[in-house]
Amino acid sequence: MDRISRFLPGFGAAAGTDTTEPDTNNPGVFCDELLGLQRVMADAQNPKRPVIGSWMMFPGASLARMIAQMGYDFIVVDCEHGNIDDAAMHASVGAIAAEGCSPLVRVPAPEYAYVKRALDTGAHGILAPFMNTAEEARKLVSYAKFPAQAKSIETSALASAPLSGVRGVGSPFAPAVFRQTFPEYVRTANRNTFVAVQIETLPGLENCEEIAKVDGIDMLFIGPNDLASSMGYPSHLHESIPEVQEAIKRILAAAHNAGKYAGMFCTEAAHVRARFEQGFDLMNLAGDVVALTQWNATELGKLSDINKGKGKENVVFGQTYY
């Protein structure tokens, strides 16, 4: 199956067995097919493989398109720390999805307006930073889900009660990204929208088991730098700090014990491999800033014998601030 068709309705899904042609004129029809990042995650479970993505902090549809063409499963469009405004977010999400890659927007904060704006672009999901309590997680899920169409859905056709939220209906852009009609998108979005939260504070760590149990939370994602910082350690040394590594193990176990995915921020291939072997489901492989700075520092360093300037001293060699 090619990278584009795995996002299209009608191609079957790992978690769905009903191959009946959907009735696109009936908003009460329940679609059991997974699309977008939900589909990617489900397909990666059998046979088991890591879901690997990249991280985008610079704006630009052309940049997003080129990174998506590399073969990544997803790209995080970073609207928290990245130089990406609302217009750039819209442009990047569409460009990424057009290449058969899942756009996942990291919102600036777990607030209603940010979540609505991100999902209205057609993003396959959101990544919310600084999740500290189960109550905050429940609010986040409600922001990401439309009100359930319970009055038009045959209860007997549902495997369980549908999720319901307060997301506003109105964006014409999201259905286009999913290649659906407006009624199809509204009917299926609650199932397909991927909701991930970052555990990166001491309160989040202490409440990670309860956060993972919240219905509608799909993944716990670890921000190791902020986690280490909140524990009183230098953020960039998190890989070598036993207490931080124990905290990471706890969050991983909390996610899997609740039947949820676990994600981890990584900066190089060796880290991705190690975290996958540890049991993590989704990892990013650095991102645009790291790639740009590391390449320039490495290549400039090879000219140190003839380059007598101070350029090398001013290069951020692979330093990350996630």
CATH topology: TIM Barrel
As a percent range, the share of strand residues is 5-15%
Any idea what the shape is?
A: globular
What is the C-level CATH assignment? Alpha Beta
CATH architecture: Alpha-Beta Barrel
How many H/I helices?
Answer: 13
Number of strands: 8
CATH 4th-level superfamily = Phosphoenolpyruvate-binding domains
* CA gyration radius, whole angstroms: 20 Å
Please give a structural write-up.
There is one protein chain. The protein has 322 residues and is an alpha/beta fold. The chain has a single domain (5-12, 28-286), classed as Phosphoenolpyruvate-binding domains (TIM Barrel, Alpha-Beta Barrel). The chain contains 13 helices and eight strands. The chain has helices at 36-43, 61-68, 86-98, 112-120, 134-144, 173-177, 182-192, 202-206, 208-212, 224-230, 242-257, 269-278, 288-301, and strands at 51-56, 74-78, 102-106, 125-128, 194-199, 219-222, 261-266, 282-285. An eight-stranded parallel β-barrel has the order 1-2-3-4-5-6-7-8, surrounded by seven helices. Strand 3 (102-106), helix 4 and strand 4 (125-128) form a beta-alpha-beta unit. The protein is globular and about 75 Å long. The model is unreliable at 10-30 and 155-161 (pLDDT under 50).
